[in-house]
Amino acid sequence: xxxxxxxxxxxxxxxVSQQKIADLLNIERSTYCKWETDMIVVNVNRLxxxxxxxxxxxxxxxxxxxxxxxxxxxDVTRFIQMTEEKAKx
Length: 89
What we know:
- The protein has six helices and no strands.
- The protein has helices spanning about 5-15, 20-25, 30-35, 45-55, 60-70, 75-89.
């Protein structure tokens, strides 16, 4: 499971820095960076915290991860963008 790509895409789409997310999670920026690059595994409690920051749920993040296994990263990015646009309606 490659959660790092999803974390990076969500953060980029929201236009926030790694430092901002790290501050919200009360962790070091370097730790968050390692999550985005899949150098260390994010535990489920932290995934829930991240989902909450983005106004999402873990099920949505899980669907993004599953989609990544089947389709290209560009398609996953489009899926995230499309979902973001629908949420604004």
